[in-house]
Structures are given as C-alpha cells and as structure tokens.
Specification:
disordered N terminus; Rossmann fold; alpha/beta; 2 domains; six-stranded parallel beta sheet; single chain; 13 helices; four-stranded parallel beta sheet; 353 residues
Length: 353
C-alpha cells in the first residue's frame, strides 16, 4: 500500500489516526510507492576522509536541485560525518525522525546497519545503498560491481609484472564492504596469474597515508616489481615510488583522478604506463533517479534487479590507449576531482516498468 503523505501524517490528530498510520506506513523497499510529490530525501554518509565523498555529496546536491525545479522533491537532508557504525546508525535514525521519504546511504558496514534499515522500512521509508552493497533485504543496492572494478586493474598489473612477479598491495579501509569485495577479487586474479603478493597494508583511501605506507613498503621490499592500489591512494603511492627513483622499475595500478593523471601525464615521456578504472561518485545521482522512480510507484522491470541489487555500469577505464582523450577532458579540473559518470534520468527510468 502506498505510504501516506508526510504532511498528512504531520497534521493528523494523534490517537485516532494511529491505527491508520500503522496500516499504511509499511512499504516494500524494492517496489516503491511514496505518498506523492514532492519528496524529501535523506543522505547518510559515514566517511568524509576523502575528496571522493565530497564530490559524491556535491553531485547529489546538484542533481537534487534539478528535481526541485520540477517540483518532484522539496528537501535534501544530509547527515555526513566521519563516524563509525554506531554513528551511522544515529545518522539514519535522525533521517527517520525527519520523516524523509527515501534514504540514500553510503554504508560503513555490509551487515551492521540491518536493524536500523528495518526501522526505516517499518516507517515506509525506502533505502538505497550506494558505492557498496549491503545484505539487508530492506535496502535496494544501486552499485557498480566493485569486484569487477578491482579485477580490471589487477589483470592489468598481473600482465605487467608477469608470472612469478612480486607485488605489494596498498588497500583502503580494512573491513569496509567495498574494500573487502575489491581485495577478494584482486587477490584471486593474482593467485590465478601466479603473482606473488609480498605484503598487504592499509592506506585508508587517503593520499598522504598511502604515500607513507608505500614508503614503508619500499624500505622492506626495495626490489618489488609492482604495486596494486585502490582509488584515493594512487597519487601518494606514485610519489613514494618517484621519491625512491623507482618509477621505471615498479608498475603501479593507478586511479582515474586528476592528481594521479597529472603525474601520469608528466611521466609518460619516460615510458610510464598505468591504468585508472572509474569509480563514479555519481553513483549517488543514479540512486536519486532510482529513488524518485520508486517513490512514484514504479517497480523494477524483469532482469533489472538481482535480489535486492541493481548493478549500474562502470563508466569507463583510462589506459595508455585513451589517456589523451580523457586527460584532455579532465585536465582542467582540480587534482581532487574523480572522473565520473552517472545514469541519466532517462536511463534510470529504463530500469522500471
């Protein structure tokens, strides 16, 4: 049954309407059914330690403004702070108390938020997870395939160092859903290619931390053949390898961010090659499009959702062959800018019937 209007609920007399609200307030998180436009949308972001997250929030705000002009939405309530799982649970409860129609969440855990997701679902609030999938059936995941994202650069690096090559790894945040999915996929690629992983360390998706971690790894493994790292740290890894005067000897899997691409561009004259797989901050925009369609009462078309997960495309990969094209388009952006991509409203509508 469609969720009752937020304004209707706010103005209703308590007591007499309690049973009506209980009857109408429940909604299947994957099947839509809001109380009518305009909708209030909430965002829960539990990590602010990277420029990627800032770009994610700003992109969502820009897309939301376009929907505001159409009268489809009225308010975007943002809960964004560097916090742990308990802090993110409180963020989501704050959004529930604000009586939002849908919540877009970049989750800190794959499973630890299940109870608060159920609280939202019981209030008729639809929840959409971005960037990394969660297991809760009360949530619709709108994500790229993080495992495939990792395989692309891992296969490239394995091809560069060859069978028997020695590499080190600079990962993101241990235990984070996207980090674990990525590393499990990359680890299998290296095992299949018979590439030796000498050490795995965490750079916390931070350039300065990534640089220090790589500096430490080079002190222990000065003759390593390559390094596999994730986005948010490749620029720092590059600088550490450059400072050790090892750019010609060590292969680096890179990132599709302007700061790294600037260094890549400068080093190309000396034969440096890399790869950058786009991890789009615009996934939040894609989820917003999905949320508006679902709140309008539309349901996902057959074949467009697998369980509770909608997989959106990885926009593209930057490599030696197409570097000039993408550098020409993005080179004027700040070093913190991540190459991006999102579904258009029209493309998102094709996921529904």
């Amino acid at each position: 049954m469609p969720r009752p209007s937020r304004r209707w609920r706010a103005g209703a007399a308590a007591g007499v309407l309690t049973l009506i609200l209980a009857a109408c307030g429940s909604s299947d998180g994957g099947s839509g059914g809001g109380g009518g436009r305009p909708y209030t949308i909430g965002l829960s972001n539990g990590f602010v330690g990277s420029e990627w997250r800032t770009q994610m929030v700003e992109g969502l705000q820009a897309a939301f403004a376009e929907y505001q002009k159409q009268g489809a939405v009225d308010e975007l309530v943002v809960e964004s702070a560097d916090t742990d799982v308990n802090g993110q649970i409180q963020q989501i409860r704050n959004l529930i108390n604000r009586d939002v129609d849908a919540i877009i969440v970049n989750p800190n855990s794959e499973t630890a938020l299940d109870a608060v997701f159920r609280e939202a679902e019981q209030q008729g609030i639809q929840v959409f997870a971005i960037d990394q999938a969660v297991t809760s059936k009360d949530v619709t995941n709108v994500v790229i395939d993080q495992a495939e994202w990792a395989r692309i650069s891992a296969k490239w690096l394995a091809g560069q160092v060859g069978e028997g090559g020695d590499i080190v790894v600079v990962n993101g945040i241990a235990g984070h859903p996207a980090n674990e999915m990525r590393w499990n996929a990359a680890k299998q690629v290296f095992a299949d290619a018979k590439v030796n992983v000498l050490s795995v360390a965490d750079g916390n998706w931070d350039q300065a931390t990534g640089q220090q971690v790589m500096t430490n790894l080079l002190a222990t493994y000065p003759d390593v053949d390559g390094v596999w790292t994730q986005d948010g740290m490749a620029e720092g890894v590059f600088r550490a390898v450059q400072a050790a005067d090892r750019l010609k000897q060590i292969k680096i899997s890179g990132e599709a961010r302007v700061g790294f691409m600037r260094l890549w561009n400068q080093a190309r004259a000396d034969g440096f090659e890399s790869i950058g797989v786009v991890n789009p901050p615009g996934g939040a925009v894609s989820a917003l499009h999905m949320a508006v369609n679902a709140l309008d009462g539309k349901t996902f078309a057959g074949g467009k959702i697998n369980g509770n997960t909608v997989t959106i495309p990885i926009p593209y990969t930057v490599d030696q062959a197409n570097f000039e094209q993408h550098w020409g388009a993005a080179g004027g952006e700040s070093d913190a800018y991540s190459l991006d991509g999102s579904l258009t409203p029209e493309q998102a509508a094709e996921y529904f019937q």
